[in-house]
Amino acid sequence: MDEEVLVGGNSSTVVRVGDTVHRPSGPWTPAVHQLLTTLRAAGVTEIPEPFGLDEEGREVLSYLPGIVGNYPMPPWMWSRTILLEAGALLRRVHDASVPLAHRADIWQLPAHEPIEVMCLNDVAPYNMVFQDGHITGLIDVDMASPGPRIWDLAYLAYRLVPLGEYTDEDVPDSDARPGRLAALIRAYGYDFAQAAILRTAADRLADLAVFTDRRATDTGRNDFVDHAALYRRDRDRLLDLSARA
């Protein structure tokens, strides 16, 4: 069957073949597929089903139909419904992942202490699938690794509250963001302090800046350099906000 290149991939080519998605694999792929299988067995069917590798060594996953939240974000992405659904879905993913958190598996990213769950490490609208204004899927979980619940929740807050730099007129303004952050925390269902979320998001961005610098070196892409600089600016701003929270 013909291959259709899917848009939105940041540094790898992902293609659709019929009702499946084929994407580059790595030493971490068996552990990621076990994670997907475990989540689906626990009732988290919003993530792809793994089907092993194809003849070219690419991983094969089920295709999740819908709209992916690529940038620039449409205005409906900032609805309160999506914010609450994202927090609740992340909680379900984390709870179902607990049995795998302390296994000695190979993951693409290092673990972060304290290990509580499997963090997806990139829970954001560009890795979500939407239909009719609701979240119906989570994709691109190959960056998963063990870590604390707040690590994932803080990055989701960074992307969906949002906590970063945005100039789009439809993005919730600074006055709305504390309320949206509180709503996201409630939807997840843990009593995290907002200051703790802000500090953790800053730590996550520091890690992401280093990771993105490496990608810039490996690929020669200048846009990665710009992304790393943005992450560091947002890190500094979030540290300042957390100190005043």
UniProtKB/TrEMBL annotation:
<dbReference type="GO" id="GO:0016740">
    <property type="term" value="F:transferase activity"/>
</dbReference>
<feature type="domain" description="Aminoglycoside phosphotransferase">
    <location>
        <begin position="109"/>
        <end position="194"/>
    </location>
</feature>
<keyword id="KW-0808">Transferase</keyword>
<dbReference type="Pfam" id="PF01636">
    <property type="entry name" value="APH"/>
</dbReference>
<protein>
    <submittedName>
        <fullName>Aminoglycoside phosphotransferase family protein</fullName>
    </submittedName>
</protein>
<dbReference type="InterPro" id="IPR002575">
    <property type="entry name" value="Aminoglycoside_PTrfase"/>
</dbReference>
<dbReference type="InterPro" id="IPR011009">
    <property type="entry name" value="Kinase-like_dom_sf"/>
</dbReference>
